[in-house]
Amino acid sequence: MIAQRKIENRVATLTAPAEMPTGAKMLIQALVHEGVDRIFGYPGGAVLHIYDELWRARDRITHYLVRHEQGAVHMAEGYARATGRVGVVLVTSGPGATNAVTGIANAYMDSTPIVVITGQVPKHLIGTDAFQEVDTVGITRPCVKHNYLVREARDLPAIVREAFHLARSGRPGPVVIDIPKDVSAARSNYSRLDHVSFPFSTPLSRVDDDLAREAVRQIVNAKRPVLYVGGGIVNSGAVDSLLSFAELLRLPVTPTLMGLGGFPSSHPLCLGMLGMHGTYAANMAVAESDLLVALGVRFDDRVTGKLATFAPHARVIHVDIDPANIGKNVTPTLALTGDVRQVLDQFLSLVQSQSKERLASWWDQIRQWQLSQPLRFSGSQNQIKPQTVIRELHRLTNGEALVTTDVGQHQMWVAQFYPFRRPRQLITSGGLGTMGFGLPAAIGAQLALPNQLVVAVVGDGGFQMTNQELATAVQYDLPVKVLIMNNGYLGMVRQWQEMFYDRTYSEVDISVAPDFVKLAEAYGVAGFRVERPAELREVMEAALKHKGVAVVDVVVEKEENVFPIVPAGADARAMITQA
Amino acid sequence: MQDFQRHTLSIIVADEPGELSRIVGLFSARGFNIETISVGESLDPRWSRVTIVTRGDERTIQQIVKQCERLARVREVQDVTTRPHIEREMALITVSAKAGDERQEVLSLVSVFRAKVVDISHTQLIVEASGNKEKVDTFIELLRPIGVTDITRTGHIAINRLSARAEANAA
Question: Which residue of B has its CA nearest to A137?
């Protein structure tokens, strides 16, 4: 065995003269070939060869050095979601890879195309509990579309090519490429692989015309139809098609959290978000609907509540690109597996505009729900209401800001009180619900869109999970604005404890916190604080106008709750609309 | 509890390291139980055929099939149970049986079940049996009172009947 290995090694050296590129160089060439010009990353032992090549290629690929690997992945996600392009991350083995896992899982849940390159210990050390060794492929397997452990440098170009294809095709998602250190050092031939085929992928076929015709027939004949639209609208670029289709038939539209911006929130046909913290009108419309048209959604439990009583009177038409989403939680009466934009265009080719009277009584009913229970909150003279902060943000930014968030109360207030008008305007952690997502995602988005005002709305809890990325924002001059909704609590958990656990506030007090203004200043960025309602507008305006990075510590009412709320696992009609 | 039927899934997956654990991981991550699993080369040696026996209601099985199909290196997933099919399993059973009546009893069962004696000592025999699950189960049950000391089973392999495949091709 050992003798054989020696021979193989000799053969390898004979066929790999010094002028052949190393695995590291092939990787960089393959990335350039994919159009990559930016990488978010953090170096370490196992990726030293790659970083060495990256330095040589710095005129073609700019590397952004983060302060924690989780931040790198969220930045790549922010970049990908702001542009629709594939975000790229480079981290080292072991802790580098494990720190990246939260971001990878986040991208998986929210269908975000990213490619994460991880270093690995040299092949001969794999499985020996070597320094900074983890089974990255094993750890990430359940939260990637696919992953690779690269065994030979010559495989790298084809793997990179396929990884990018997988990340952006179908339902987008993360792909991990794990590269042992000796593979990035080994020399081999680089081939450009312009015509590499993907033997394992089957292209998505067009939805059968008869099926589309039947769907349209049902939609046109429905008396109480609702369009329930999600992230698939954004990912497939179906925004214009959706708008045309909804307007043509005057159909009510309710977006999910991931679908916000996929249909203009202020449009008269828009009922606002549905689900746990959705509007009364949206949830009632779904509950009373006779036809739910689900477009690019996955019937998440935060949308459906109790499945048995979700949309109880409705037939369901489900359009999604991922066949595994169809029938997973709700069995549709009509299933259309396909790209939602293509399907909507098929629909559009099959319908004529309808008489305005057709859905008149349904719209009357919906308007009544909207009027009887609009989104609302009680004002206060001495305390800043978090909802006011979001409304003020909307006003001061003319509704044009790109907003990122973490997860929790502030996220729901953003979803409720900042009417998004275009896709990719809200970048939030939907499926995984990741605290600490907002700031790095904002940095990634800002990098993609340098002239765009980017605001990270975060809680005081989440901010402290990734606030070190302020240094990254400073280093690369990315003037994001951070709005901390500071209530000294883990607000959403506190709200649940108040409502469902008898006000037992178990471990949610985080009022021992750094002085966020001083913290901002320590990073060399502008810090603002506002505690009184009367000063809110002025301080926010100053912060938003500030040229560089700005952090605003908005001290808000401590025990404000998000309403409406449908208790977890309950029927939408059990919605609590007011304290 | 809904009707939990036994289903045999036949999965064609690229013969690459780690692919089997991707499939198995999918089952465990979603709480699907695997009753038996067997893996071997298929017609094209670049592809393996994985045969998994699992239980679940229609929705669960459909979900398993779709999740498996979503894997990048899986080419095809079939629920062979939905059409006429042949299932086979092999077992190697160690039985304690001294020369005399006990051994004669084992040998007569071996003959009835068309099994084979593959090893023998003064006190024990190893018998090889194959067939569908029910046949192998019954054989083992009948041997048990005599003294079964070890069992190793291959898990199921399955294939659709030719008639069912012709039907599928025509459709």
Answer: B18
